[in-house]
């Protein structure tokens, strides 16, 4: 919580002793307005879908669990935006506690990246399950329930651990400007490359590979 750098900035308030570190500038708030409208529309669409899921048992299937997991992470991304938007446009406290500032900064700088990583690996898990079904003609979601639970835990916890451990090791640090957003800065180019490989390169390559093998299997099966 203490490894957060607060950069100097020009205060919009006349009283320079009241920094309001969580309040966005007018320009920053206005730049997020189009995204706010998009997120409101997305929230309405999500609400309609989950209401259908609640009242229709025909779409509550184990085979859709990865799709549900993906949609839940999408909801968390929406929640993150609305939460930060409310804080950034309504927080008028001059000197909030260091814990609260650190908490908001961590949510702003890391949660988006964490959830995006989870989504990519959820798609990978979905494609792997489809490949097993196509290749071995087995009901993955019924026969391998324990393995699926382990896969879910790995997808959610491993990225969290990898992102979190970088801060106490000094590989990453949170940087907060006074009236703008928080960002993660890395100590070296090697750390950036490692994160890039883990977050995007590796899952994308694996997804392409699994999709290719699945398509090839389907093509070979249909020609027999």
TrEMBL record:
It is found in: Membrane. It comes from the Eukaryota. GO terms for cellular component: membrane. Residues 45-224 form the G-protein coupled receptors family 1 profile domain. Coiled coil: none annotated. Keywords: Membrane, Transmembrane, Transmembrane helix. The chain crosses the membrane at residues 35-55, 67-87, 153-173, 193-215. This is G-protein coupled receptors family 1 profile domain-containing protein.
